Inverse folding.
């Protein structure tokens, strides 16, 4: 494998990625970053450098095995590097969460070539069509389901299920899938066979939830078996590196270097630049010269970009790079978590964008576990990819929706004020109110799904994991005291309706397990236990205690450099360019302005495909 990895002599050519210049510099070799690097470097006359802190994990069984899909969150490399054994993830701690018993929670971020796609659950679900449609209402014309759909197809190469998989619940509608893209998707051979799917399907039907033959057509509602980002015939995880990088790693115009991007370097190093001013035509005047990154041995290197810098470090790291580059909130505010932004770190303000690091939306993940008698045909260690998506009407009854919608619409001003105050009023309550009204419309007018309930089974054990899909709560991610580590504050369940959704979804999951035919197999509740949460008639207080004491991150965070109009707290425009500059874009989960009902990785592939097309069509030269 003739790789152009600037990592070690064993990988081929050794070079110093200092000075450059490169046409494009991509900060982060994750899901979106590798798509962009692949597509831009397809032009042999375009040079691309990717900078990534993680290493080559293409042969690591903790990454490649479909059955090990939960292991990478906790796995540690066995081979030493620099005298220690680093994890496949960066592990951070959130701030204490007031609505989750004041707990600080572990928050993971992938650290490998392939990013978080090397450690995720491999689920391939796009979400409801109404969700990208709502992006346009936030100042993004042309970003809607119809516009995104071709890029979903462009990225995908779907393998239809086998006869045995079809008997176990796998299904598909051909027009919903691409068949010639880089990303292989399928149902893995490890998918459960046997009778469990039929039992689950029959039980959900008894509760009014039909079978969704293919949830990737823009409507995820109902019960389905989801496809996965798996190369079925090779029996390996299909992460972004396998899909978009390893086959093109030998391109002479594509380099990758190990390091952590610290900041964008501006022309004249930022001196004299006047905070993202516009000229008489309304165009940005600030220009990036390149980036500064830190090598594994602690050296700082500057590399030049002739055309553009593309930040793709994810919803946690991208806002830190922007803030270290002087893009963010210049105001000192020590009343929020005892830290402030830019001025408290002595960082000159290049572009005043108060939305950087704000609008962080995450989903709290809650679990119920039961013992029981699993079917004889349940294979030990198999994957059970079964999920049920419910709307507000499913949870509360269609007849109750008008009153519920009215009550929640009346609550939006209070929620907006509460969120603004909790996040230091960096985005105004008025701006938040507009965003939350768009989200309210998604739930109550567009009938978008509001919760996902995963049903799982292991020998002798059953359970559910669920989360609110479209939380009204908003948090933040900012530089910490050392201007190196993130301060992650998701503000889980800050808006009380998120708690209402989580409790109603938990009750729906509990009812599923006590409804025939699944109830014939299920025994006692073991998590959190029958005393903490009775199987019948548990009170709201008991449910809320379960949420507060056990909820964990779902790792679907987004929005910290949101694609919205600037007056709403947006950070990038509809071409993903950071407001106030000419040649820095963001292409990762941080630009997605609203949560989606699907699983995040799928939309990131489509977003990055479209972003690559936008960048190539413009071909900016400075």
């Amino acid at each position: 494998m003739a790789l152009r990895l600037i990592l070690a002599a064993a990988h081929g050519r050794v070079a110093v990625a200092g000075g450059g210049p490169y046409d494009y510099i991509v900060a982060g070799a994750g899901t979106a970053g590798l798509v962009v690097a692949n597509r831009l470097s397809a032009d042999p006359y375009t040079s691309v450098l990717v900078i990534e802190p993680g290493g080559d994990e293409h042969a690591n069984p903790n990454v490649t095995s479909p059955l090990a899909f939960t292991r990478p969150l906790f796995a540690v490399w066995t081979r030493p590097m620099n005298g220690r054994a680093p994890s496949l993830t960066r592990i951070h701690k959130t701030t204490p969460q007031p609505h989750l018993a004041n707990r600080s929670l572990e928050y993971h971020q992938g650290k490998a070539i392939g990013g978080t796609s090397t450690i995720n659950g491999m689920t391939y679900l796009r979400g409801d069509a109404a969700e990208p449609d709502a992006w346009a209402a936030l100042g993004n014309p042309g970003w809607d389901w119809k516009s995104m759909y071709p890029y979903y197809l462009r990225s995908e190469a779907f393998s239809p299920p086998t006869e045995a998989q079809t008997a176990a619940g796998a299904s598909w509608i051909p027009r919903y899938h691409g068949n010639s893209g880089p990303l292989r998707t399928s149902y893995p051979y490890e998918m459960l066979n046997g009778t469990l799917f039929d039992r689950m399907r029959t039980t959900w039907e008894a509760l009014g939830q039909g079978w969704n033959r293919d949830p990737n057509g823009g409507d995820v509602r109902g019960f389905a078996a989801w496809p996965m980002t798996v190369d079925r015939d090779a029996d390996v995880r299909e992460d972004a590196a396998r899909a978009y990088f390893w086959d093109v790693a030998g391109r002479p115009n594509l380099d990758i270097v190990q390091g952590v991007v610290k900041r964008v370097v501006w022309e004249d190093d930022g001196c004299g630049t006047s905070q993202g001013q516009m000229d008489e035509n309304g165009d940005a005047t600030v220009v990036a010269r390149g980036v500064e990154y830190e090598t594994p041995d602690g050296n700082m290197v500057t590399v030049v970009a002739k055309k553009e810098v593309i930040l793709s470090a994810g919803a946690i790291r991208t806002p830190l790079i922007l803030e270290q580059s002087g893009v963010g909130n210049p105001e000192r505010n020590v009343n929020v978590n005892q830290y402030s932004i830019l001025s408290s770190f002595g960082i000159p303000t290049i572009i005043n964008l108060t939305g950087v690091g704000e609008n962080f939306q995450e989903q709290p993940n809650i679990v119920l576990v039961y013992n029981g008698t699993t079917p004889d045909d349940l294979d030990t260690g198999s994957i059970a990819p079964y999920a049920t998506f419910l709307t507000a009407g499913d949870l509360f009854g269609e007849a109750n929706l008008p009153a519920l919608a009215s009550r929640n619409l009346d609550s939006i001003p209070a929620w907006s004020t509460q969120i603004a105050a909790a996040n230091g009023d960096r985005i105004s309550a008025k701006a938040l109110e507009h965003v939350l009204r768009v989200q309210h419309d998604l739930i109550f007018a567009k009938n978008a799904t509001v919760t996902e309930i995963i049903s799982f089974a292991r020998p002798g054990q059953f359970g559910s994991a669920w989360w609110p899909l479209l939380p009204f709560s908003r948090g933040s991610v900012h530089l910490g005291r050392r201007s190196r580590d993130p301060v992650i504050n998701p503000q889980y369940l800050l808006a009380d309706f998120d708690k209402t959704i989580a409790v109603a979804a938990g009750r729906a999951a509990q009812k599923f397990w006590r409804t025939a035919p699944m109830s014939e197999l299920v025994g006692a509740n073991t998590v959190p236990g029958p005393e903490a949460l009775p199987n019948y008639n548990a009170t709201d207080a008991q449910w809320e205690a379960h949420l507060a004491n056990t909820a964990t991150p779902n790792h679907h965070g987004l929005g910290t450099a949101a694609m919205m109009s600037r007056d709403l707290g947006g950070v990038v425009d509809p071409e993903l360019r950071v407001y106030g500059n000419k040649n820095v874009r963001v292409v990762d989960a941080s630009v997605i302005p609203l949560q989606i009902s699907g699983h995040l990785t799928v939309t990131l592939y489509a977003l990055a495909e479209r972003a690559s097309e936008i960048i190539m069509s413009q071909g900016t030269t400075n």
